[in-house]
Write a structure and sequence with these properties.
This protein is α/β, with parallel strands linked by helices. The chain is about 35% helix and about 25% strand. The strands form 3 sheets. A 6-stranded mixed beta sheet has the order 6-7-8-3-9-10, with helices on both faces. Strands 2-1-4-5 form a 4-stranded antiparallel beta sheet. It has a 4-stranded antiparallel beta sheet with strand order 12-13-11-14, with helices on one face. Bound molecules: adenosine-5'-diphosphate and magnesium ion.
Length: about 325
């Protein structure tokens, strides 16, 4: 393996399923020891990207490498250094948690004793020690995800792929899983994480790549993506929509305020560079026209604002959970083949 290559490198990857272009030419780089958040709505191409990188799908064009190893030319070598945990926990319902982990360890050619020791340690770490001897079919959704993630770690992969790891989990289980992911990263694991949740990318990722319809539409740190919109969002709330329409006209004519105003019911929103100065200018202009705002707020742009500005639609809007791959267990790559 090449010691200087990035953990993950994707160049010009395309993938088509009959008439559907799932990936239209994707470039990605994940430096070692960092977390990349691959953010996009349902159907954007996140799972397809992960499947190419975890060697379960061969791209039509382009190349992909993990730790410098080509995923098409040397898939076996790639599988040894990666772990995959996903939206649909690939665990065996009829085995106990411990048996699941030991089986994964055995399939990764670990000695029985090593597989056992690691399984016990992972159950402990993921707060599953007590449930370890129970059949998985008695586990909650959050427990299954934690077990699935534990299973991806049995062979201690340096690169981890997490495909929507917290989709469908309650907030507490999501927070627990975030803590575990942060710990793994602190230990030096490289993570490529896909998510539809802007907050998740914001919380966990060093860099974010936004994809939509199989194309990269933006990338940067969460801060960089937000600052593209201007430093601050100024929101003025009016008494009613008629007043808001008048305020919109007044504020749009204030060139000094940065971008044009945009109306949302009784609310008028502007992205501005200097919040307090813009707020004063806005209030003066409104007052000059006899319009009294009911409320005024300055806030940091959220990734939601960014996504909306980039794509014209909200990230989590109108999404339907996709279906588990028919291949079932084989979705996990680490050491299972
Ligand atoms: N095996 C497949 N056969 C046909 N179409 C597929 C298949 N896998 C994915 N697609 C299509 O490719 C596009 C991207 O899918 P996917 O990578 O699963 O998106 P995401 O994970 O971001 O929701 C979607 O339009 C999806 O319907
Ligand atoms: Mg997916």
């Amino acid at each position: 393996m090449d010691d200087n290559s990035p953990a993950v490198e994707v160049r010009g990857v395309t993938k088509r399923f009959r008439d559907v272009v799932a990936l239209g030419g994707i470039d990605l780089t994940v430096p070692r020891g960092t977390v990349l958040g691959l953010l996009g709505p349902n159907g954007a191409g996140k799972t397809t990207t992960v499947r190419v990188l975890t060697t379960t799908l061969v791209p039509d064009e382009g190349s992909a490498r993990v730790l410098g190893v080509d995923v098409v030319r040397q898939p076996d070598l790639v599988r040894r250094s990666i772990g995959l945990a996903g939206q649909f926990a690939a665990v065996d319902e009829m085995l106990t948690g411990r048996e699941n982990l030991e089986m994964v360890g055995r399939l990764a050619h670990l000695e029985r004793a090593v597989a056992r020791t690691r399984s016990v340690a992972l159950l402990e770490r993921f707060d599953l020690a007590e449930a370890g001897n129970r059949m998985v079919r008695t586990y909650s959704g959050g427990m299954r995800r934690r077990l699935d993630l534990a299973a991806a770690l049995v062979h201690r992969p340096p690169v981890l792929f997490l495909d929507e790891p917290t989709t469908g989990l309650d907030p507490q289980s999501r927070n627990n899983l975030w803590d575990v992911i942060r710990e793994l990263v602190a230990e030096g694991t490289t993570v490529l994480l896909t998510t539809q949740y802007l907050e998740e990318a914001d919380q966990l990722a060093d860099r974010i790549v936004v994809i939509d319809r199989g194309l990269v539409i933006a990338e940067g740190t969460a801060g960089e993506l937000k600052s593209r919109l201007g430093a601050t969002v100024l929101e003025v709330t009016l008494a009613d929509e008629a007043a808001a329409a008048r305020a919109e006209t007044v504020l749009t004519s204030l060139a000094a305020l940065g971008s044009g105003a945009e109306r949302d019911g009784p609310l008028v929103r502007l992205t501005v560079d200097e919040g307090p100065r813009a707020a004063m200018a806005a209030l003066r202009a409104l007052d000059g026209d006899g319009i009294a705002p009911a409320g005024l707020a300055l806030r940091e742009p959220s990734l939601d604002d960014v996504f909306l500005a980039l794509t014209g639609h909200k990230a989590e809007e109108g999404t339907v959970p996709d279906q588990p791959a028919a291949a079932g267990r084989s979705r996990r790559s680490g050491g299972l083949h």
